[in-house]
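Exercise 7 asks you to align residues with tokens for two separate proteins.
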Amino acid sequence: MTTEDAASNISNKRGSSALQMGPRKKASTSDPLVSHGRHFGRTVFALCNYPSLLTNGILRLEQMEDTPLEHFSSEERREHRVFEQLLDSYPGLLERLKNGSEENILHIGELIGKGASGARGDDTKTLKSAVLDWISPKGEAIQPPLHRNSKIDRGFNHELTGSLLCPAGLDWNDSQTKENLRSGELSVCGDQWPIFVYAHQTYDPDDPWCGLLRSRLLVSAYKHVFTSPSSVEKEPKATRSGNARLHGMNSATIASLAYIATQVRFALSSSSVFSRTDTATDSETFYHSLLDLLEDPDESREVDELLMWWNRQVFPTSAAAKRPITANSALSKI
């Protein structure tokens, strides 16, 4: 089956953007695509409707024979970049899609989606408890106590989690601000980033890039998910390889930073279920807002520096963590 044939089968089924979470649906068949979906969701695009991503992508390939990609909307261009990254990351996938029926294409999407949602659920579950260890004052217990299996007292309801979730630029120590956040009178949208994403919980309004996505809390969560829970305390003790090594990952990705920040933000919140319809946490908007910044070509210098910083934290022996040779140095001239 050609791309055109595949596209004709699904042209009438094309829906809204695939880069939104799809309906909860379980794929029952075990397949390597499930494992691949776990890693792809964490590192390339997390909140995605994979059946739609595949059907839209196949149709767009056919359309691109006559229409250049730059003529599509920005949302469609991003969606197609994710589609191409998926094809590149799984050899033979394009042929499976071209030669498959509409039912096969949807099933492949469901398998990948099963992996992505499964990984997201696993991470949500483990981080709910682990995050309390990382935010506890050194040598002290959290007061009043926060329960590991219940989140009802988290969010703005608790002094500690509230201070971490307070939007950058607002003062948690201001009693009126605190009260308005707790009562809901002051609503927080997903694109209002919490102070915990900044190093030392310090935000400089004159230099909003300073310390952004460089907090120790984010590093702990990143190591917990990608290298192993034990690696958070420096020396790995796990007997099996972490998720990064299992998938040949030796450098941080833009999407993995947004994913971890989204997971930590949710872990600190009082919401119990990660859902696309949860307007209280607005997790999709938060995730997308970080990607919008990190994928902006005008921010490439800052993003490159950020990724190098992360590689030194998490993958210090990888080539990606090595500093470039200083220009005009003796070494650069040899």
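Second protein for Exercise 7:
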Amino acid sequence: MELKLPREGAAFCTQDCFKASWTSHKSVHLKAKLSAPGTGENSSLVSEGWRYCIKKGQARTPKLPHFDWTGTLRPYPISSKLTVPAHIELPDWALDGTPKVEPNSDLQHVVEIKTPDQIERMRETCRIARQVLDAAARMIRPGVTTDEIDRVVHEATITAGGYPSPLNYHFFPKSCCTSVNEVICHGIPDSRKLEDGDIVNIDVTVYYKGVHGDLNETYFVGNVDEASRQLVQCTYECLEKAISIVKPGVRFREIGEVINRHATMSGFSVVKSYCGHGIGELFHCAPNIPHYSRNKAVGVMKVGQTFTIEPMINAGVWRDRMWPDGWTAVTADGKCSAQFEHTLLVTETGVEVLTARLPSSPKVYPWLNA
């Protein structure tokens, strides 16, 4: 019986090689297997208790889940959940993964006008969130894992006296979201090392003094190609242009028109599945802020409202797919995606960016230094 192995130019060895030198040649196959995704270094991590995340964070598996991956990125095993000291004030999902107040609140339908006390607490919390994100940004370089970035976010948040809002929110297993390359949003920090040429978004939310502050930025890892640079800069500009129209009396639906116009003129597309949101004592509430054109967002901006704008812009098509972990949204065509986010306050004269960059923030965007 002859084994039907492929011949020249194939990924496998020839029939003669198989017959004559299997005992020595199998070591070559072993090396190839160990370097494949989901094996090698990942195998040793699995033996140390790291696992792949599945079922929206409610389960783990030692094997890479089967999926029709859209790009080159793959999930890697994740570490166990980090702990929070007893003195930290907890949101109501921290212990069991289920928000209690948020889903049934009237503020899912009515846009809250914040009191002066709420606004002051939000200013403080948003400033902490900015400092936490800046600490994470300083970590970014080839060879660093997103798990290491998550640990910095976790520890910086706790040091400031806050709780990392994503941790155990609907069972999300980590303290921030790290979205690499084709990941649109909600990427789970894992054991994959960042590589030269990647782009990575870090999304931080801090819960402090009873309110949340939410922001994210997309960063370059090492030397990034021109296409990725243009995508990230366009996304940054989309957010800036959207913020520039925020003032009392403007319709929420206008935000999507501004973002869509700039993105499409630059040759990019706008994600439709995920939106900006109201924020305050609740992590997510009204208003809903779509980033695409011809949306049906209800309402107009009023003094004292707080909400996020967080456009997700894709290099290719706007459609998304969900990974088996139930959280990680990726582009349907495997092309890169970028995002930026701020928490905003509508004021008498326009807008206050509560999560604005500080003088101490890392200088990572060339267009800001020009």
